[in-house]
Amino acid sequence: MTNKLKILTIISGCILCMVSCVSSLETLNLEILKPATISIDPEILSVVIVDKSEPYRDENVHTVVMPKETISLDTIWVDNFSQIAVESMSEALKSKMFFDAVFLHDENEEDYIIDKGYIPDYELIDIIEDLCYIYDAQAVIFLESYKYKTKLSLSDLGYVYYGSLDANGSVFWKMYDQHGELIDMFLQSDSIFWDKTGNRFANILQELPEQTSAVEILAEYFGETYISRISPFWDIASRKYFSKGHHYFERANSLHKIGNWDEAAKVWYYVYESGNPPQKAKAAFNIALSYEVRGNFDEAVAWSEISYKLFRKMGAFRSSNYEKIISYHYYFLLNERQQQKDKLDEQIGM
Fold it and tell me: Contact, 82 vs 143, CB < 8 A?
């Protein structure tokens, strides 16, 4: 066999190994509970949300960039921005059911609580105490201020017209307990982007949201996403698992796909006990996943470490670099989840 033929054989073998490894991996999505950014005192059972902001005013708020000119539409205001944000937050917090009760302060009915500038020495602590007393709440979340801008861009690319709309802004939140102690202070900044192509500018403008609508969508987004700072939340996580590598894996696949992770883990454990090194590594990886699904992070970390170490010991013909990377990444991810467990347990009162 010539040297060139040997090299080609080795390369072909590596390619076949990589294809085989990738084809044996499948993906599933899990719902996982993540801890909030900050931990709220478990004694805070209910909160009241208050819009304390003034209408936003500034120059060059809405910009339209066209092929031959740029114009500004500064007289178009979205004065319901703050109301949308607090309503969105209220609904999102209620859906999470982290607090026993969530109240949205109606400034039209109780405006004297917020606007008491005519009463000498009426300070923030008095406002907070009044709000907590009226709503029987233990904390108050204030929307202090907000701002927004939009940029609509229209371009002639020669063969097609292109349009994009960017809505960006920020909201300043403060959260206090019933005694006036500051729990959280956060400047939330973000943007939402849309783009379209078409054969006419008119068609593009019809498909893009209006600038005021875009700002309202941004306001709703701010309210929905702030709550991850103060409330644990469910998120969708993607996980890999080995569906092939041993003839018993097919049986385990059937079991975990109907939610029977206990029995699937038993099958994988049998493969781990009786299989060769690549089979052991894959089985250990899947066992780690089964423990994560069942909420036992200590065992999940232990089995992912076994898998990672087994993969690392094997040469290129028995295990691909991709498998080594996947196994290490999963080991690292599970360690992170294990470290978050105490924080999450504290937040949900376990």
Answer: yes
